[in-house]
Specification:
The complex is a heterodimer. Chain A is mostly helical. Chain A has a single domain, classed as Winged helix-like DNA-binding domain superfamily/Winged helix DNA-binding domain (Arc Repressor Mutant, subunit A), CATH 1.10.10.10. Chain A has helices at about 5-20, 25-35, 40-55, 80-95; strands spanning about 20-25, 55-60, 75-80. The longest helix of chain A has 18 residues, at about 80-95. The radius of gyration of chain A is 16 Å and the shape is elongated. Chain B is of the alpha+beta class. Chain B folds into five domains: about 5-75; about 90-125 and about 340-480, no CATH class; about 130-300, no CATH class; about 490-515 and about 720-853, no CATH class; about 530-705, no CATH class. Chain B is built from 29 helices and 25 strands. In chain B, strands 4, 5, 6, 7, 8, 9, 10 and 11 form an eight-stranded mixed sheet that branches. In chain B, strands 16, 17, 18, 19, 20, 21, 22 and 23 form an eight-stranded mixed sheet that branches. In chain B, helix 1 runs parallel beside helix 3. The chains are: A mainly alpha, B alpha+beta. The interface of A and B includes residues 45 and 49 of A.
C-alpha cells in the first residue's frame, strides 16, 4: 500500500491537533508556525482535497461572512480512516526512528 | 474593511473559473480572508502583491492535481475505445477508411483552393498593385475591357501623388526568331516597361537590377531561357539578334516565374523598342487598347475615390473615345477574372458534401451497433456517471477515430498529390501539406469531423435508461433505424447528384468539342505568315498549290478558333438607332470559302475580281438577320468612312469558342499584307506525308530565316475546351470518391444487418427457405433505399443542371441517360457491397447460428 506523503501527514496532524474548526486558512497558519516553512494555499489545498476523496477527512460547511467576500467556510475533520492512517504511519515511524539519537554516526 | 483593488478582482475571477467546481467558493473565500487580514496588518499594496503571488504559485499545483483525477477517467475511455476498435476491427476499418478518404479529398480540395489564392502573391507589393482597365461603351452596352491605351497609366502617374509607379505590358507575347551566334531559337517574348521590375517582383540572379536603363535594345531572360540561349555561358553583355533585324544586349537573368503566376514570361524586351522600330507615337495614343497597365499605389489610398477621379480621364483628353478608366485590385485578378471563383465555389461545396457523406458512415455504424455498447453505458450510469460524461466519452471516441483517420489522410494526400497535380494541371508543392496554415485547418477539420460524426451516436447512446439496458430490454439495434435509413438515402442522393453533374459536364464538354462549327476543320493545316512569305504571299501560295496533295489554300488574318477584332458603330438603312451591335471582322482572300467549305446561303463569295473591290462585303447569316431587309444582297453597310455593299451571305460559323454565341460578322478582303497572318491549307488525307514534305521544302526556300512550322487546326480545337474538361475530370474524381465512401458505409450496415438477422435466417433456412430467396430478401431493403435516393436526387440534379446549362448558348438537352447511368452505378455498387454479406449469411449453417441461445 501507499503511505501518506509527508505533506499529507503534516496536514492530517495539524487537523488532528486543532481538534475543531480546522479550515484552510488556520491549517495553513498552524503549519507555517510549526514547520518554519512557507506553505502556499495550493500546498495545503491539494492534500486536503485528495484526502477528502480517499475518505480520511470529512467536511462541513460553515457560515459565509463579509471578510471572506461573502463566501462560506469549509471545515475539515479527521475520520476514523484518517485516524487509522495516522496511527499506521506513527507505528512505522516509531520503529524506524527508534534509538536514532543514541546511535553514534560513524564515518 | 478595505475594498479590493480592481485588478485583484480580475485575478479573483480567473482563479474562480479555474478552480475545481466543488471547492471554488471556499477557496476564493479563503483567499479573501487572508487578503483582508494582511491588508489590515500591512496595507493593501502588500496584500495585493501577496494575492497575485499566491495565485500564480498555487494555480498550477491545483490544476495539475485536478487533471490527475480527470486523467484516470480519460485513460479508461481510451482503453475502452481501443478495445472496441480491436474487437470489431472490420467496422473500425470501414469507419477509418471512409473518414480518411473523405478527409484526404477535403485536403486535396483545400490545397487546390489555397493554391488558387496563392496566385501572384509572390509579388511583394501584390496588395498595393492595381490593374488599370477600361470600360468600353457601345451604345447602351458596357463591356469590361482588359486592356487600356498606353498613355493613360503614365498620365495618372504624373497627375496623382497616390500613384507611386506605373508599368505596362504589351498584350500577348508575340513569337520571334532569336539568333545567338550559330544558334536559332524561336520563342515568345514579352514587351513591357522596365518599371515592371520595380512594381512586380521578378528577382534577378544575374545582372544588376539597379542599373536598368531606358535603352530600348536591352533584354532580360529567365534562367531557363538563358540556359537555352547560352548553355553554361554567362549571358550578361551578350548580344541576341531578333528576327534577323534588331540586336539586343542581355542585361539580366531573372528567376523563372513560379507556376502560380498570371504574368509569366521568359524573355523581356522594353516596350520602347516598338517606338524605335515601327511607330514613334505608338505609346502616345488614347485609343489603342493593346496594353495591360498596372499602378503601384500608396498603401491605404482610397480605392473608391480614386476610381471616381479617374473615370473620365480618357474622355478628357480624347472626347471621341468610348473608354472609361477604372482600377481593379491585382490580387483579385486570378480569382475573379479567370473564372476561378466559380470553380472554388463548386469544389468547396463538393468538399463539404464528401465530408458529410463520410461522417454519415460513422454515425450509421456507431448507432447501428449501439446495442453492443448499451450495457457499458448502463454500467457507467449505475456507477454514477452523469449523462454529460457519457456524451463526452462518445465525442472523445469519434474525435480519436477522426484523429487516426486524419493521420492516414495525410499519408493518402502525400501519395495522391502527384496524381492530383497531374489531373488538375497545377504544381501544388508538397510543402503545402506541412505548412502551419494547413495544420490549423486540418485540426479544425478533425474536430468538426469528430463532433459531426460523434453527435448523433453520443446523443443516442447517452440517452439509454440503465434499468432497461441492464435488464436486457433494449430494442435490439432498432433504435434510430428509421433515421439511419434517411441518412443512407441522403448519402446516396448526394453521390448520385455528383455523378449526374459530372456526366452532364462531360457531355456538354464533348458536345462543344464535337459541335458542327459551320465549316470543315478536318485536314486543315496552317502555316504562320511571317518574314518574306508574308509580303510575297501570292507566289508562296501558288508554289504550295503546285503539289497535288494540297487541295486549297487561303490566307486569313485570324485563326478561326479566336477572331477577336471587332467594333461597333456600324450602320445601315433603317437601323434602329438604339441598337449598336458589336461586329466581328476577319480578313481573308478569295479562296477562304473553298478551303473552309463554307456554305453560301445567298449571293456569292469573293472571286478574283471582287476581292480587289474596296466596297464588296460578305456577311454571315446572323448579320443578315440583323439588317432586317427583304433583299440583303446589295444592301449598304458602313462604319465611319468605310462602306460595303453586301454581295453574299454565308452560313453562320463559329469564330470563337462555342461557349459564346455567334455574333454578326463581316468577312472582308485584306487591307494590307501585314494583317494576313496565317495560311490555311486543305490537304488530301491520302497524300498527307508528301504534302507536308513539300510545304517544308517550299517554305525553307522562300523564307530561309524562319524555321518551318505548321499546325493542325483540329488540334487547336481539341485544346480549346481543355480547362472545362480538366474541371470535369476533377469533379469526376470527387464524385467517384463520394459514391465509394457511401458504398463502403452500406457494406458496413449490411454486415451489421446480416449479423443481427443471423438467427432469423437460420430459422428461415430450417423451415425450407432457399438461399436465393434469402439473398433477395437481404438485397431488397438496401436496393430500395438506393432507388429512393435516385428519386430524391433526380429532380434536384435536373433543376441545378438546367440552370447551369442555361448559361451556354449552345448546349445539350438534358437526356435521361446520365440520370439512369448514375442510378445504375449506385445500384451496382450497392449490390456489390451488400452481396458478400448476404451470401455469407444465407449460406451460414443454421445448426451453427441457432446453437446458442
Amino acid at each position: 500500500m501507499k503511505y501518506l506523503t509527508r505533506k499529507e501527514e503534516l496536514v492530517l496532524l495539524a487537523i488532528f491537533r486543532m481538534e475543531s474548526h480546522a479550515y484552510l486558512v488556520n491549517i495553513r497558519e498552524y503549519l507555517n508556525r510549526h514547520t518554519n516553512k512557507k506553505w502556499t494555499i495550493g500546498n495545503v489545498y491539494v492534500p486536503l482535497n485528495r484526502m477528502s476523496k480517499i475518505g480520511f477527512l470529512e467536511s462541513s460547511i460553515g457560515e459565509p461572512n463579509a471578510k471572506r467576500g461573502g463566501k462560506a467556510i469549509k471545515y475539515y475533520r479527521l475520520t476514523q480512516l484518517g485516524y487509522d492512517a495516522l496511527l499506521e504511519i506513527k507505528k512505522v515511524n516509531d520503529v524506524m526512528w527508534d534509538g536514532f539519537d543514541t546511535m553514534a554516526f560513524e564515518e | 474593511m478595505k475594498t479590493m483593488p480592481g485588478f485583484i478582482k480580475g485575478f479573483r475571477q480567473i482563479y474562480f473559473w479555474l478552480c475545481p467546481d466543488e471547492d471554488r467558493h471556499y477557496l476564493v473565500g479563503d483567499f479573501d480572508e487572508i487578503f483582508h487580514t494582511l491588508s489590515a496588518e500591512q496595507g493593501t499594496v502588500k496584500a495585493g502583491i501577496w494575492y497575485m503571488a499566491q495565485c500564480l504559485s498555487t494555480l498550477p499545483e491545483i490544476l495539475i492535481h485536478q487533471w490527475r483525477w480527470r486523467f484516470s477517467m480519460i485513460k479508461n475511455y481510451f482503453k475502452i475505445a481501443l478495445r472496441q476498435m480491436q474487437r470489431h476491427i472490420g467496422y473500425s476499418l470501414i469507419n477509418i477508411i471512409g473518414l480518411s478518404m473523405g478527409l484526404a479529398a477535403c485536403m486535396l480540395i483545400f490545397f487546390w483552393i489555397q493554391y488558387q489564392f496563392s496566385y501572384d502573391t509572390f509579388h511583394e507589393n501584390y496588395n498595393d498593385i492595381q490593374w488599370l482597365r477600361c470600360y468600353q461603351q457601345y451604345g447602351e452596352r458596357r463591356v469590361d475591357g482588359w486592356g487600356i491605351p498606353p498613355i493613360v497609366s503614365e498620365a495618372l502617374e504624373a497627375e496623382y501623388p497616390e500613384v507611386l509607379e506605373s508599368a505596362r505590358f504589351m498584350n500577348g507575347q508575340p513569337e520571334a526568331l532569336f539568333t545567338i551566334g550559330e544558334k536559332k531559337i524561336k520563342t515568345e517574348f514579352q514587351m513591357a516597361d522596365p518599371s515592371i521590375f520595380h512594381v512586380f517582383t521578378y528577382p534577378w540572379v544575374r545582372g544588376n537590377q539597379e542599373d536598368l536603363t531606358d535603352d530600348p535594345f536591352i533584354m532580360v531572360l529567365s534562367e531557363t531561357m538563358a540556359a537555352r540561349f547560352f548553355d553554361d555561358k554567362d549571358p550578361i553583355g551578350e548580344t541576341v539578334r531578333m528576327d534577323d533585324a534588331h540586336d539586343f544586349k542581355v542585361v539580366g537573368v531573372m528567376k523563372d516565374s513560379p507556376s502560380n503566376s498570371t504574368r509569366k514570361f521568359d524573355v523581356w524586351t522594353p516596350l520602347s523598342f516598338i517606338e524605335k522600330v515601327h511607330d514613334p507615337n505608338f505609346l502616345q495614343t488614347w485609343y489603342n487598347c493593346s496594353f495591360r497597365a498596372y499602378l503601384l499605389m500608396q498603401p491605404g489610398f482610397d480605392f473608391e475615390a480614386f476610381n471616381e477621379k479617374i473615370f473620365d480621364r480618357i474622355r478628357e483628353s480624347d472626347p471621341t473615345t468610348n473608354l472609361d478608366a477604372f482600377i481593379f485590385p491585382f490580387k483579385d485578378v486570378y480569382i475573379k477574372t479567370y473564372g476561378t471563383d466559380e470553380e472554388i465555389r463548386m469544389l468547396s461545396i463538393i468538399c463539404g458534401l464528401i465530408l458529410l457523406v463520410a461522417c454519415i458512415n460513422y454515425m450509421n455504424l456507431a448507432t447501428a451497433r449501439s446495442v453492443r455498447r448499451a450495457r457499458e453505458v448502463g454500467m457507467r450510469k449505475v456507477s454514477g456517471a452523469h449523462r454529460n460524461q457519457i456524451i463526452r466519452q462518445f465525442f472523445g471516441e469519434s474525435v480519436f477515430l477522426s484523429l487516426l483517420a486524419t493521420l492516414i489522410a495525410i499519408g493518402l494526400t502525400i501519395l495522391l498529390l502527384p496524381g492530383f497535380n497531374n489531373l488538375a494541371e497545377e504544381e501544388i508543392p508538397y510543402a503545402m501539406v506541412f505548412n502551419p496554415q494547413t495544420m490549423l485547418v486540418l485540426l479544425g477539420l478533425l474536430i468538426v469531423t469528430g463532433l459531426l460524426a460523434g453527435s448523433y451516436p453520443a446523443l443516442l447512446l447517452s440517452n439509454f435508461k440503465p434499468i432497461q439496458v441492464l435488464k436486457n430490454n433494449v430494442d435490439r439495434g432498432k433504435s434510430g433505424a428509421a433515421f439511419r435509413r434517411i441518412l443512407v438515402v441522403f448519402q446516396f442522393s448526394i453521390s448520385i447528384i455528383l455523378i449526374i453533374g459530372t456526366l452532364v459536364t462531360l457531355q456538354q464538354t464533348r458536345f462543344l468539342q464535337n459541335k458542327d462549327l459551320g465549316f470543315s476543320k478536318d485536314q486543315l493545316v496552317y502555316v504562320p505568315l511571317q518574314g518574306s512569305i508574308q509580303n510575297n504571299r501570292a507566289p508562296y501560295k501558288q508554289a504550295l498549290l503546285d503539289h497535288p496533295g494540297i487541295l486549297h489554300a487561303t490566307a486569313s488574318s485570324h485563326n478561326p478558333t479566336a477572331v477577336y477584332w471587332n467594333g461597333s458603330g456600324w450602320a445601315w438603312e433603317g437601323k434602329d438607332p438604339n441598337d449598336d451591335p458589336l461586329v466581328t471582322y476577319i480578313f481573308i482572300d478569295e479562296d477562304f470559302a473553298n478551303t473552309f467549305e463554307l456554305e453560301i446561303l445567298d449571293g456569292e463569295f469573293y472571286n478574283a475580281n471582287t476581292i480587289t473591290s474596296e466596297t464588296a462585303g460578305v456577311i454571315n447569316k446572323r448579320f443578315a438577320d440583323y439588317l432586317e431587309q427583304d433583299d440583303v444582297l446589295g444592301a449598304r453597310i458602313w462604319q465611319g468612312d468605310r462602306s460595303f455593299h453586301v454581295i453574299g451571305v454565308v452560313k453562320d460559323f463559329h469564330f470563337s469558342p462555342a461557349t459564346r454565341e455567334i455574333g454578326p460578322m463581316i468577312i472582308a478582303p485584306a487591307e494590307d499584307n501585314r494583317s494576313m497572318r496565317y495560311l490555311f491549307l486543305k490537304i488530301d488525307a491520302e497524300d498527307m506525308q508528301n504534302a507536308i514534305e513539300h510545304m517544308k521544302e517550299v517554305t525553307h526556300k522562300m523564307n530561309p530565316n524562319f524555321p518551318f512550322e505548321f499546325h493542325f487546326l483540329d488540334e487547336d480545337y481539341a485544346e480549346m475546351y481543355h480547362g472545362m474538361e480538366r474541371m470535369a475530370h476533377i469533379y469526376q474524381l470527387f464524385a467517384i470518391l463520394a459514391i465509394l465512401i457511401s458504398a463502403l458505409g452500406l457494406a458496413g450496415l449490411a454486415a451489421f444487418m446480416a449479423e443481427r438477422r443471423i438467427k432469423e435466417i437460420g430459422i428461415r433456412r430450417v423451415l425450407g427457405a432457399k438461399v436465393g430467396g434469402i439473398i433477395a430478401m437481404m438485397l431488397k431493403g438496401q436496393l430500395g433505399l438506393v432507388l429512393l435516393s435516385s428519386l430524391v436526387a433526380w429532380p434536384l440534379a435536373y433543376l441545378y443542371l438546367k440552370n447551369w446549362l442555361a448559361d451556354f448558348p449552345y448546349r445539350i438537352n438534358l437526356a435521361a441517360t446520365p440520370f439512369l447511368v448514375s442510378t445504375a452505378m449506385a445500384l451496382l455498387l450497392a449490390v456489390l457491397s451488400v452481396l458478400y454479406q448476404s451470401i455469407k449469411a444465407a449460406y451460414s449453417n443454421p445448426a451453427q447460428s441457432l446453437k446458442h441461445e
